[in-house]
Amino acid sequence: MAHIILNKDKLYHNYKYLNAFFKDQEIEWSVVTKILCGNKCFLEILFSLDIKSFSDSRISNLKIIKNRKPDCTTIYIKPPAKGVISEIIKYADVSLNSSLYTIKLLDEEAKKNNKKHQIILMIDLGELREGVMREDFLELFDNAHQLSNIEIIGIGSNLSCLYGILPNSDKLNQLYLYKQLVELKYKTKLKYISGGSSVTIPLLQNKLIDSKINHFRIGETLFMGTNAYDQSNYKELKQNVFELCAEIIELYEKPLIPSGEMGTSVTGDIPKFNLNDLGKKSIRALIDIGLLDVDIKYLNPIDDHIKIEAATSDIIVLDLGKNEQNYAVGSIVTLQLDYMGIVRIMNSRYIDKVITT
């Protein structure tokens, strides 16, 4: 049966390296756990480490974390929807916000529960995802600052996730200027400039950003060992923390081109074939995983003799060429996944989750 494996030793290695790196830079960081989709077994691996802060974009995941590790700091990392406000106050110590309407709802709920809720105000630095526009930031800060049960602990931004807009020193220094401005105007101190993510690490390594960016939210580099800025691998980190294993459930020699009148595929596409392949054959294998579980563009077989040919809802078709590796029905094929591939697999209740060392 298809299953995804998390290598505990590789994850431990990556965490220890990153923790030492950020400590040396005097930067606080929060582990972004959304890739684990609330899986309790995989989360237990993180709980065994000395992690002080967990971030997630799903309140159900933060609930699991907070119930299991009540002393940790939990951060909700997208603008909260109205329907989860009560749970945000209960399970998230901090939330990222950009809307006064939402912040007022958080203030009212916090007041009901006799709590002080901490927020980081998000500024849009060009990615056009979450964040108030820069010209409206001071007005938002002024209104939020007046709320009795809201504590503004920092300002932040998000880059790269939507359109791939990369961080640079100019953009991130703007956060520091806004911090200075509000601290001077409101006679207050903000604890964090939360401008760091996996894509910002290379800038920090190369001393291209100011050390005043003192809070990072890290997921991809921890779990993938990759440089999110240019998609290269960090030689200091372990890659393939996750691997997908799938079983071959059929194997036959078949033509390279199908026969018959052609319509659309299950995805609505019209397949195209090279007519030079007419009459040619190869060994084709079916594995027990499909588009319900993962998009094939996120997968890459570790064996470079294997090519992913196509997929339906429950099956992926592989081209084994001449099958020089002697695969057979029952053989296990191992595939690498990128970040989105892991998230999709972790969301599938049909795929077993396995821990190894």
Automatic annotation (TrEMBL):
<keyword id="KW-0663">Pyridoxal phosphate</keyword>
<dbReference type="GO" id="GO:0005829">
    <property type="term" value="C:cytosol"/>
</dbReference>
<keyword id="KW-0413">Isomerase</keyword>
<dbReference type="InterPro" id="IPR029066">
    <property type="entry name" value="PLP-binding_barrel"/>
</dbReference>
<feature type="domain" description="Alanine racemase N-terminal">
    <location>
        <begin position="7"/>
        <end position="225"/>
    </location>
</feature>
<dbReference type="Pfam" id="PF01168">
    <property type="entry name" value="Ala_racemase_N"/>
</dbReference>
<dbReference type="GO" id="GO:0030170">
    <property type="term" value="F:pyridoxal phosphate binding"/>
</dbReference>
<dbReference type="InterPro" id="IPR000821">
    <property type="entry name" value="Ala_racemase"/>
</dbReference>
<dbReference type="InterPro" id="IPR001608">
    <property type="entry name" value="Ala_racemase_N"/>
</dbReference>
<protein>
    <submittedName>
        <fullName>Alanine/ornithine racemase family PLP-dependent enzyme</fullName>
    </submittedName>
</protein>
<dbReference type="GO" id="GO:0008784">
    <property type="term" value="F:alanine racemase activity"/>
</dbReference>
